[in-house]
Design a protein that fits this description.
The structure holds two protein chains of two kinds. Chain A is α+β, with helices and mostly antiparallel strands. Chain A has 18 helices and ten strands. Among the domains of chain A are: 1-134, Alpha-Beta Plaits, CATH 3.30.70; 147-201 and 431-457, no CATH class; 205-266, no CATH class. The chains are: A alpha+beta, B alpha+beta.
């Protein structure tokens, strides 16, 4: 099942920044009814864009650039249909926001004119499509589970709990596991006929093969590039009869030279140990956090200059991305050993001079970064180590994010307020979604033997 | 006997031309699919075909540039009295629209839905297990709308004949075609006189102290109260245009939808199940299934517009083309509803699609006035039939939908009559 993560960055007219911020806040007030218990929250997005998992709209101020507006979306299915659905719901609100942004000077300027013209009714979908920025690295938690499937699984979970509570627990306690499974299935089936269907495949064999093939190809390409100097020398007549040895020697020598060069740069890098925090923004971010199980963060950092860094950051991101797609844990719904990330991605902005990061995660921002620092600091350092002011790194993946306090301060300073943020299932953690899915999948089986039912019951 | 008293329901039914045109239209979907990819804005002389969803919407939304071409034919039907279908946006358009909105009320829709089902059920009860779907739906649709508007069936002549022939003239004919125009004028004059008589008769009934609550009754009440827009001629024109524009649609589109369902047995069974379970949820489900079935063979392949000034369509995209003033633009709604760039998995039958994926009744300023009536009644017209056990195609070619030009002509179904 195709899932898409993307963002649309648009440069903001500085004089329209406050108007844009107000427009985003208006949209939030219009859709977010959490303060009113009688109104369904985000119902328009929930009902009319059932493929949408998460969406955010933010404005990033900067000292070195004009502010940038970014719409981030994570959804199921084709992009064109998503944009069509989104613009059918909030198209006019998005048009107001585009009007606060600069006319792009690339080929999309005419489209900007068309959608922002006075009284224009032209759909803004093509403009967002044309301005879409692909992520350099992304992670999909609960990969392959469609938004509606997640919600259906959750309703099965809730009804299972209700059923267990409704019948006296002792009635189940004495029964064989297979009987418990059969009874629960019988109780839930009338409201969930889909439990009679086979579970849809989360990741198709073709997708798996493609993921591994892409990673293999990438590694082979890296080796070929590293072996090229040796092969060139062999071609020029140096040790012509020892082609393989020359290639291997070249790979080793190239890797050593690159590491030496990287290290040379790393020891001369400056880390930003105490970046200035905008107190007002900090307060605003804190005010919006920890209302529900999940939280959201957006960050933009400058990328360190230099040819080597440019090459390494691109190759590093590509490799990290491909590894994240192919790794078993990622396919099982988790980011390595981290079980708190729903959708996250990095993307390059402004001709690769800035790096954007968005994440939709469980629990508080502090514990989320702690989790990252503890369990995925290598990958985090590889992806973010190119950022100006990042804590000192060692051979691209060492140290860096391990400097927890410095790293947190640096990350915090790069954040902005998530002014509009939508989650289709705000009460569910990544773990709970997987658990719900296992329970629902178990109930799809018409019968289980005692040992399988016992294993399945561990999730109840 | 004059054509206004009896004759074929459509001119397309006479001769081989209709069959040939129907066969040609069968080729439209693959051709449009190709055009969407290779030539989304196709120019054929001064005629432009717009095939993609975004561009079709842009044509409809840019109504100041792409005007409706209905006025010349409409003048033949209304004896040159203005009706908002043929007008550009403006105070006169909005005033006429408001006069109709004041008498065709949203609160009528539930009753109209129930009435459509009742009329359909009565006809099926007398069908003896075999039904010709096109004429069945036509009978229900004209009966329903005539009652709602408060106009009784003419004798001699019939609403079905007059309405269908004028609908055909309005949307496929040309006022330049003298023979066709003369024929349309004859139908129109008969229709106008009939409505004039109905207005006079109603006035007498009202004077006698009886006032049925239908559209005509509401119009006359507003006229008596001195509300503008309700002179006798204005009432006549509005009712005439509503009966010409509305009830010819169901006998076109419903047989096409049923034919599409019959080709998909699982969905046909789902529609039957929804029809049999008589609850509001199942009514909604049936409506969704019928609406989706219509997407595979819609009411019309598209709608014509005329470029009133030069305009760049799809500007800012590689497919942008400048449409010159005076060009005829065909906004291919059928193609747009199959555009995979905006409609997810368009070849899949999915009744859970969002409303904005459907362009059955146009879009924007001139979106069909009767769309809400269609929304409330279309599925209810076929519900009693779908609920019948053993519903299936009649044997042989009679059980396959036959068309004449763009119009459904025949589709025979049989069902177990012992229920």
């Amino acid at each position: 099942m195709k899932q898409v993560t993307l963002c649309v960055p648009l440069e903001v007219k500085p004089e329209s920044c406050s108007r844009l911020t107000a427009a985003i806040e208006d949209l939030k007030r219009q859709e977010d009814k959490s303060a009113d218990p009688n109104s369904p929250n985000f119902w328009r997005l929930r009902e009319r864009i059932p493929t949408l998992h998460f969406m955010s709209i933010s404005v990033f101020p900067a000292h070195d650039y004009d502010p940038v507006f970014i719409l981030e979306a994570n959804f199921d299915g084709p992009e064109g249909a998503f944009w069509n659905d989104l613009t059918a719901v909030v198209g006019e609100e998005l048009r107001v926001m585009i009007r606060c942004c600069k006319r792009p000077s690339d080929g999309t300027g005419a489209l900007y004119d068309a959608v922002t013209a006075l009284a224009s009714k032209r759909s803004v979908a093509p403009y967002f499509e044309a301005r879409t920025q692909r992520p350099s690295v992304f992670h999909h938690g609960n990969r392959g589970l469609a938004c509606q499937q997640i919600l259906r699984d959750h309703s099965v979970f809730l009804e299972t709990v209700e059923e267990l509570d409704r019948r006296a627990p002792q009635l189940y306690r004495g029964e064989a596991p297979a009987k418990v499974h059969a009874d629960l299935r019988t109780a839930l089936l009338p409201n969930h006929r889909w439990l009679d269907d086979q579970a849809p495949e989360r990741i198709s064999p073709a997708e798996r093969i493609t993921d591994w093939a892409a990673l293999t190809l990438f590694v082979l390409l890296l080796l070929a590039v590293a072996a090229a100097p040796g092969l060139l020398l062999a071609g020029l007549g140096v040790a012509r009869d020892h082609l393989v040895a020359m290639a291997l020697a070249s790979v080793v020598a190239t890797a050593a030279a690159l590491l030496f060069w990287v290290r040379h740069l790393e020891v001369r890098d400056s880390s930003h140990d105490r970046p200035r925090q905008d107190e007002r923004m900090l307060r605003e971010m804190i005010r919006r956090e920890d209302w529900i199980t999940q939280n959201h963060m957006g960050s933009i950092v400058l990328i360190k200059p230099g040819v080597l860094r440019t090459v390494i950051v691109r190759a590093g991101h590509r490799g990290l991305h491909l590894a994240l797609r192919a790794l078993r844990a990622s396919r099982a719904g988790y980011l390595g050993s981290m079980r708190t990330v729903h959708f996250a991605h990095w993307a390059f902005l402004n001709n690769h001079s800035r790096l954007l990061f968005f994440s939709n995660f469980d629990h508080s921002w502090d514990s989320y970064l702690d989790d990252f620092i503890e369990k995925a600091h290598g990958g985090l350092t590889l992806a973010w180590g190119c950022g100006v002011g990042f804590p000192t790194t060692r051979y691209l993946v060492g140290e860096g994010a391990e400097h927890g306090r410095q790293f947190k301060a640096w990350a915090l300073a790069s954040r902005t307020v998530s002014r509009f943020w939508y989650s289709a299932y705000p009460d569910l953690t990544v773990d709970q979604i997987e658990r719900n899915h296992r329970i629902a999948n178990g109930l799809r089986n018409k019968s289980l033997d005692d040992s399988a039912a016992e294993a399945w019951m561990l999730d109840l | 006997m004059t054509p206004a008293v009896s004759g074929p329901i459509y001119r397309w039914e006479v001769g081989r031309k209709g069959q040939l045109a129907a066969a040609m239209l069968q080729l439209a979907p693959p051709v449009m699919a190709l055009l969407r990819t290779v030539r989304p804005l196709l120019r054929l002389g001064s005629f432009w075909v717009v095939t993609r969803y975004d561009d079709v919407l842009e044509v409809f939304d840019t109504d100041a540039v792409y005007g409706v071409p209905y006025q010349p034919n409409l003048q033949v039907i209304t004896a040159s009295h203005p009706f908002f279908l043929g007008m550009p946006d403006g105070p006169e358009y909005q005033a006429q629209l408001a006069t109709m909105q004041a008498v065709v009320l949203a609160s009528d829709l539930p009753h109209l839905g129930d009435e459509a089902e009742r009329l359909a059920a009565a006809r099926i009860g007398a069908a003896n297990g075999r039904i010709e779907l096109v004429s069945f739906v036509r009978g229900v649709a004209f009966d329903l709308i005539a009652r709602y508007f408060g106009i009784s069936e003419p004798a001699p002549g019939s609403f079905a004949l007059w309405g269908s022939r004028l609908f055909e003239f309005q949307f496929t004919g040309s006022a330049q075609d003298k023979a066709w125009r003369a024929e349309a004028e004859e139908f129109a004059v008969n229709f106008q006189k009939h409505i004039d008589r109905a207005i006079a008769a109603r006035r007498e009934v009202v004077a006698a102290g009886v006032s049925p609550d239908d559209v005509l009754g509401r119009c006359l009440a507003r006229q008596a109260a001195g509300a503008p827009g309700y002179s006798d001629v204005e009432i006549r024109t509005a009712i005439l245009c509503m009966i010409v524009g509305g009830p010819p649609q169901p006998p076109m589109v419903l047989p096409q939808a049923i034919e599409q369902l019959l080709r998909r047995p699982a969905w046909f069974a789902a529609a039957q199940q929804a029809a049999r379970l008589d609850t509001p949820d199942n009514n909604d489900r049936l409506r969704a299934i019928i609406t989706e079935a219509m997407r595979f063979d819609p009411l019309a392949p598209g709608f014509k517009r005329v470029a009133l000034s030069s305009h760049e369509l799809a500007s800012g995209t590689p497919r942008a083309r400048r449409i010159p003033a005076g060009a005829t633009v065909f906004a291919a709604t059928a193609s747009a509803m199959m555009d995979e760039r905006r409609v997810p998995q368009p070849s899949c039958f999915d009744p859970d699609r969002h409303a904005h994926n459907y362009l059955h009744f146009g879009h924007g300023l001139h979106e069909c006035f009767g769309r809400f009536i269609n929304h409330a009644t279309l599925h209810r017209m076929v519900k009693p039939l779908l609920a019948r056990p053993g519903l299936r195609r009649a044997r042989g070619s009679a059980g396959r939908l036959e068309k004449r030009g763009p119009f459904a002509h025949r589709l025979e179904l049989v069902f177990d009559d012992d229920a």
